[in-house]
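Long-time lurker, first post. I've been practising inverse folding by hand and with some scripts of my own, and I keep getting stuck on stretches where the structure tokens seem ambiguous. Below is the full token string for one chain I'm working on. Before anyone asks, I'm not after the true native sequence, just a reasonable design that respects the backbone. If someone could post their per-position residues I'd love to compare against what I wrote down in my notebook.
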């Protein structure tokens, strides 16, 4: 079920990219492209470590709930959200008492996953997209240009996206389907995915773990 959620989150983000592309707002799709890639790489991990990824993310949820509880106390709204606060506290307690730490918890951070699977180009792309997702000078430069002679400003992004939106969507959708296919009985999409890979030069097999240890714990 985690694989299902990861796969269709990636698909949903891809759909958002295409909608923005059709509206001529490809620059605004950077967070969606970044998210689609992140969920697809995590889905690759899920195909390797599906039996343990649930516990890892539940422990991460426990830490997230602690941070949220601190934020609610800090802004003085703990009483207003008393019921939800108690649920958070119970979640943290349950996770702490019932789920043991896992040595692969660091893989919940996307940079560790991409490094471990040897996805250097994907990590480079993800890092650049992050600079357009968060407030940076790189992001603001989408709307002005200085060539040393003239300074030009625009209300629309001047630069083009790193990869054309339709090609990016096909690339990520194919990768996500390749990962999800590993979780399906009989791998029913294999033949069609191989055809697409051959036609567009995409990978036809999943990247293997290249980092220390093994994501499957073997």
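-- Answer (accepted) --
I ran through it position by position. Result:
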């Amino acid at each position: 079920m985690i694989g299902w959620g990861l796969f269709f989150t990636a698909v949903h983000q891809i759909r958002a990219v295409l909608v923005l592309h059709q509206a001529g707002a490809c620059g605004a799709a950077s967070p969606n492209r970044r998210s689609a890639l992140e969920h697809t790489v995590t889905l690759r991990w899920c195909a390797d470590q599906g039996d343990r990824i649930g516990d890892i993310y539940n422990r991460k949820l426990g830490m997230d709930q602690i941070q949220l509880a601190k934020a609610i106390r800090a802004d003085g709204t703990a009483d207003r959200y008393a019921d939800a606060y108690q649920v958070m506290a119970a979640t943290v307690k349950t996770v702490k008492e019932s789920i043991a730490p896992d040595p692969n918890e660091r893989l919940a951070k996307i940079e560790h996953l991409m490094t471990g699977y040897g996805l250097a180009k994907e990590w480079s792309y993800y890092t650049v997209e992050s600079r357009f997702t968060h407030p940076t000078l790189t992001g603001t430069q989408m709307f002005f240009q200085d060539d040393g002679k003239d300074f030009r400003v625009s209300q629309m992004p001047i630069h083009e996206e790193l990869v054309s939106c339709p090609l990016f969507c096909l690339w990520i959708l194919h990768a996500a389907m390749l990962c999800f296919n590993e979780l399906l009985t009989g791998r029913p999409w294999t033949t069609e995915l191989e055809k697409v890979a051959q036609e567009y030069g995409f990978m036809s097999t999943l990247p293997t773990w290249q980092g220390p240890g093994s994501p499957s714990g073997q």
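A couple of notes from the structure itself: The chain has a mean pLDDT of 88. The chain has nine helices and two strands. Happy to go over any region you disagree with.
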